[in-house]
Fold:
Amino acid sequence: MLLRNVRFFARTSVLSIFCLLALTVTASSDALVEVASNSVNFGQVKQGETASAKFQLTNAGTESLTIQFMEFSMPGMRANVKAKINAGSSTEVLVTWNTSGLSGEVRGETILTFNDPQSPEIILTLKGTVVP
Structure:
């Protein structure tokens, strides 16, 4: 009886390890976000003008990449981007910032949350100088 239990345990353990490996391999083929550069200096703009920057996002995974949430660290910031990026495709994020009420050296962040299990969040930084 003890020998039977050992064989059953050995088979169950091997099956469990196989299933765990299969799940690990499957997880690596998800959406995978890559950003060419996550920080742009827009230089110098006059107060009240709109500063802008473009960021390139690529989905290096095998599943669709979805932006689930977007937030900004400063008022007046906006972003224009497609919510879904197909596998193997790229898209551009256009971040704009209305500089009314700002002066001096400024820095703002656009935080994008994705369905990418390896990099669920990307921070895009826009910085520069606003002159009166």
Remarks:
- The chain has one helix and nine strands.
